[in-house]
Amino acid sequence: MAIKLTLTEDETEMLIDALEADLEGYVEAAKEARGNNNREDVKTFTEAGERITALKAKLEALLGE
């Protein structure tokens, strides 16, 4: 399912900033899980980070960044 949405450049930049903050949390959580030898959490947090990175890249491409 695809969702069509119209955003201003400012709104898109706000989403990118929010994704960056969210990504930082997942990176830290993956580091902690790695330190605790919790492989399942490392996998989960890494996958979430990858998905956030991909979405952020899509939004940045729309802005020509």
Give a concise summary.
By secondary structure, the chain is mostly helical. Helix content is 80%, strand content 0%.
| Beta content | under 5%
- E-strand count: 0
Distance between the termini: 26 Å
Low-confidence stretches: none
Profile the largest sheet: none
Kindly name the structural category: mainly alpha
Q: What's the SSE pattern?
A: HH
Report helical residue fraction.
over 70%
| Cα Rg | 14 Å
Q: Give the overall form.
A: elongated
Number of helices: 2
Average predicted confidence as pLDDT: 96
Description:
The protein has 65 residues and is mainly alpha-helical. 80% of the residues lie in helices and 0% in strands. Helix 1 (9-35) packs antiparallel against helix 2. The mean pLDDT is 96.
Topology, element by element:
Layout: H1 9-35, H2 39-63
Helix pairs in contact: 1-2
Keywords:
80% helix; 65 residues; elongated; mainly alpha
